[in-house]
Records
---
Amino acid sequence: MDKIIRFSIKNRLAIWLLTILVVVTGLYAGVNMKMETLPNFNYPVVTITAVYPGASPQEMADKVTEPIETSIKSVAGVKNVISTSAANISSIIVEYDDFDQDMDQAVNDLKSAIDKISLPENMEQPEISKIDINDFPVLGLSVYAENKSMEKLTTAVDKGLLPKLEGIDGVYSVDLAGQLVEEVELKWKEDRLKQYGLSADGVLETLQYHNLSAPVGLFHIDQKMRTVVIDGKRTSLDDLKKLKIPIHPIGPMNQPSP
């Protein structure tokens, strides 16, 4: 320690230069050092979503989920495949065994594998997307109105504000939360179902099948190419009441003759 003190006293200029160098280097590093709340992290998972309007869970499993699973399991690097089949939709999670996996290439490989299999003609093209931990909202907006009901505010935001935000250059996606959501609870009268030869699952599938919107193609409208969609969404109780469900009455008239 004494040697260090004696050296510092005899070489004050060198100590000053060393101190200035350390301070300047620290300031430069502090100003230019990149800081991130969440570091860039490669998560080796890809999700596949397939929509088949009007299909039952069993049809989704047999005609969509299983063929896709069989095809993608042979893709290089795939570790696990987890799937869920429900009415009209199938969700598949593909996990890779290497955190250094090129996820853009992985998405392309899965697309190529799915393109090789035969899927139902009237189903939508499966959506394949990688999970990016950096895909978090960068801007949150709150909307309120003093003289509007929640229903009218929801409509104004959904039909007016949301499309404008989505049309801004550089905006990747816009999600809406906290809006008014109306739901209908279905209760079954078992005796009436038996009377008309129906089942709860059959009625539910009919309701789901007739509550879809389907694109019919591109058409020239007002000198522009526009997508035309048949809107079959049921948005009110009156719409549900007007829906016709095929029935199979059970009674003496339907009994086989002796």
---
Amino acid sequence: MLPFIQNSQLVVACHITGVYDVNRNNILPNDDYSLVKNWADSITKLGMNGIIFHNNFSVATCKKFTSKHIQFISVVHNTLFNPNVYRYYIYQQFITQYATHINSIFLTDITDVVVEKNPFTQALFLQNSTALFCGDEPTTLKNDWMQAHGDHLRLQIADYASYEVAFKHHNLLNCGIIGGTIKIMQPFIQQLWAIHQQYNANNTSAYTGDMGAFNYLARTKFNDNLLHGSPINSVFKTYDISDTTCWFRHK
């Protein structure tokens, strides 16, 4: 067992490289620590515990940057799934194995997210032990990008189209930040990975389906327990480095 998993509060991320990234339209280099440095430094600065799941960092890089705050776990990427989707298998396996040792956990993007405040010490988090916390965007579920993103899942999931209608005026949730206590995160991630296994393995569209599946599950099964937006995340894609009130800054 990693030294800080026991009864811990964790921030966890995946960094899968060497495969085409449909969101960035390129292939991330395999052993470039600079891509995750800001994320790791922000966690270290706050005295928190972070885990980086990766498939291509060298042994030397992991040894150099492992600390009492940051740990690395090597994984093998199943190319049947896009990295944005496969991370939920990795998280599901990890949470299942260590559920009895984890108190609370946040799963985040890593190359464009930094932690500004320790979420686990915030009153909003402490007073909402059954909440699913997540990021959001300054747009609604009904937007052109999400309509295109949902094309594959709309054909696979019977009530996907009706969910889109029911929640069309609600905020678009962002899966780059997801967290809560283990009692909410374990069932959520299990169900999210099950959706991807059943409905997204045969996705040959230009869109990964990660945002579609996340919004669908969060809104249809966990909507009464959702907390999103300020102060959990900064305004998405505003690159607002002056916002120090948020827990996570996302681009």
---
Amino acid sequence: RLMIFPGRYAENVTRFEMVSEPKLDAPVMVASFDGWVNAGDAGTSAAEFLAEGGDQVATFESDDLFDYRDTRPALTFEEGVVRSLAWPSVGLIHSQVGERDLLVITGTEPSIGWRSFSRTVGDLAVRFDVSEFIALGGIPWAVPHTRPVTLITTGSTSDQIPEVADHPEGELTVPGSVSGALELEMIERDIPTVGFWARVPNYLGTRFVSAAMTLLERVDLHLGLGLDLSEMASEADAQRVHLDAIAGGRPDVGSMIEQLEALVDGGSQASGEQLASEIERFLRNRSDGDFD
């Protein structure tokens, strides 16, 4: 049964179906969406890891969130017979990692209804007494896959960002995301927020396991979850070997990676203007992976 919350915005909210209503102890809400900002599938891979084995709490009405001409459902035929239509979706999942309750919201990034969706998720956060909101994602960056993944940290206040953490300096304007809209909604509701964003090599057009693992390591440090990432570490090592082999067979790619290594080893970082330009390039070309 589709539901809306009564109140001031009852006429302009995202409909959802409440599948279960677990009793939670100061849960942390974690969010990531497939789209922008999710280079290398870093955020959604990390969110799916945290949600694994959990229970569905709510599903959101896709008609309220997607322009199907922009985000087209997948139509499946079998021997010429129409079998199914897979609609883009967003769901809320409860998982328990150690002693910590998590509410993981993930799926395809909505193409419409961002404000009403944010209010609805904010209402759910209040309903479940969420203690903190964490956004996860990946940002395309001029870095090589041969060096450790680094993170950018954002927060609702400067106190949420550790002094040793790398964060955007000065004022920076970039294309917005649903994750950003949710962060602002939580801030308005006095729920502390933090965002962890992995720098993903801008030449990769595939899932980058090392980025997802680095995000999970940071969440683990932040929340004290005690995650077992050994299997993901093995997968990341295997992918590194595969990417090295591809680069070794392509002199142009190998030369580019060497240049990026020199920049990173020399301590160079992209400026805010370069970052905004890189993001715009990513949004234009995200379906045309250069190196996978």
---
Amino acid sequence: MKLLLSRMQKKSRLLTWVMILTLLTGPSVCELPEGWVPVWIDDTAVISDEALEGALGNLGENLPKTEDIVFLVHGFAVPREASTSSYNQVAKRIHAAFAEQGRKASIVGVQWDSDLPNVFFLKIPGLYISKKLYSRRVGRQGMRQLLAGVSKKYPESSLNIFAHSMGCELVGAAIAPETDFPEDDPNAPPTVHDPTKKFELNLVVFAGSDLDYDIGVTGLKTVTDESSTIALWWMTLADTVFDPGDKVLNLRPLIRGKAWGATLPQMSEEDYDYLFSHRQLVVEASNIPTNHKYRNYYNEERISHLVPSLIYTVDPNLIAKPERLAEIDRVLEAPADPEVLRTFLDSKELSPEIYAIWRLEHLFGDGSKHLSDQYLSNIVQDLKRVPRKVSRLRGSSDCRLVREGYWPTETYMARSGAPSSVDQRGQIWQRDFQGEVVRLEKDFLTIRTPFGDDKDFDYREGETEFTPSLEGVRVGSLVKVRTDGEQLRWVHVLRLAEWLESTDEAQRTP
């Protein structure tokens, strides 16, 4: 039995890899760079002097009086021609957004050898790790070379980075090269270009980040102290209660654990306090693309928020305060009154909600403890899987924010499908799920979705409708269900052909 389970787990991981690569890869079109300067970093992870000088020269010819410089950094399994096509689209959006503000920018497209060779898919997990190691080498060497060269030639320009997926790992290694990353050889110190140099960065964006969610406490050296060289961090968060999120990041826990781009990163209490008190962190959970693509993360809507925030961070006198930053400042400037702060907990955007949670936690005497130990993040996970468990914490939790019903709010609970909660129409919130039965007991079963979530449900004979029959449900059965909170309304056992068709359809969702 153990051998069978082991084989099933390995098969599940391999299928997960296939699904990830299906989402990552796509048709490539041969295009030339438009509106940006390409910098290619090959498998040596180093930029030759000639290539660097050529890039700096092209950058000067592009916009000799540039005011802001934006570096684009793609992620894993991206062919060079695919990154060119993607950068062409994103560069056009960036230039248009700057033009609206009456300002100019130069764009540098960092293209690194992240593509996969044509190999049997059994080798993909090993190649993923090797590319992670290589991305760190690129960050510590080639990316630092590039940043050093650009900052020296254009000392008056602001430096900004729009990174994505595994490209965030590359950028993390460039910014903090002394970081103890997983798989690094502790007996072989990494080669770092100009290891003592600190780069003054204006805006750093981590979109769909593939960094391990807990790298902030396991290895990443503190960069959020008084000597911080990053004026503003901006990150996307895909793991929300209500939206489908990023399918690649949703699958990642099956093969490596949670990603930074899928859940609020775990940091020390001191790091959280510094980031929040200085308004140096913006967290976005809206407009998350399901297919994980660079061009879809950096779409027109997100760029329309990033560029004004970038310019305002350079100099607040240049433009009016952008709405994303204004929302956070309203929370920070609100009176130290729990009843006032709780009004921000149902904010449309995630940043005001998180800042309000942070302020309330400090008012209640817990500081950033429940952020740092992941207690509050785990509640979000429970809202997705076992919302009734969260309801039981009312009145008993060690966290006053939860115990006294400040958060999750009633609206939040209702949208998650928690018992006794209703939506705005006065109806119980219903949700449909699909997955594999991994646990089956009397009146209770657990379903694992294709995205790695284990969801627990109650069922009642005579109340829950089973097709073809309850007797036909087994551990390993592929099912589609509808639930009221934790109560199953109906369960349909899928044939393999139905499962494959519905899974393929989900993968084709843009």
